Amino acid sequence: MIRVTVPATSANLGPGFDCIGMALDISNIIEVEEYGAGGLHIELLEGENSSIPMDDSNLIYRSMLSLFDTVGYRPKGIRIRQINNIPMAMGLGSSAACIAGGIVAANHIAGNPLTFQELIDLSSNLDGHPDNVLPALVGGIAVGCIQDKRVYYSKINAPKDMCLALITPKYKLLTVKARSVLPEKISLEDSVFNVSRASLLVASLLNGNIDNLSIAMDDRMHQPYRKGLIPGFDFIREKAIECGGKGSFLSGAGPIIIAMVHHKDKCTFEAKMQRWLLELEDSWTLRWANINDEGIKTTIY
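^ that's the sequence the OP posted. Answer follows.
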């Protein structure tokens, strides 16, 4: 049996649409084994989300099949146990965690025929872009692109002494809906705006100049269009900076909004931000997370 611990991820980080992502210290656990009885058996914890498929449409299983098909392996039977800590449809890469975890587990069962780079390539092509599966696999903050089905990437170590405020509404937001509001084209002016902010974001993370993040995490490619689906979006981002956050952004497709905060400012930020959240009509909560710099982990039983 293999146990795969795969972290949640936050994609885009403002201007890095579909190419920059970050791993968080919230993880799903997937336990997988091949057994001789044949068939498929999926187990969830008691009280787990009833919308998770328990048949061959399960995303972990479908991801595993993609690897088996790629390497020509035919398992006798598969047993999967899911322990889900990453909330679904909230912008924390729950689908990407299923894909990355399934691919890594299947590779072990097949005898590890693919290299780590090939696992990154296969996972990213299944997901359609690398900004969620890539940091889930390598950890930290990752910048990547796909060229001829190969992922080229660089990992940025997490800024020191920073934590993440996850500002979360009660409602969910499906990625397909969040994608549907995006324009098919953007202007040259907006393209230049995003290139400049994304470049500043990467440079500032590399050299530790976190005071740039409030500007570097702005964009004109997805957040201005998706914020219409998230009442209070502008208010929360503005107040997050006023309360001491260094940068704030929509996590993935949303609706969670993340603020990067110095550990030393954590208590002050939370006290101030909680008061502002009470002014919003929707019920918003604040929880804390850290950046996971290790990425996916495996344990063999």
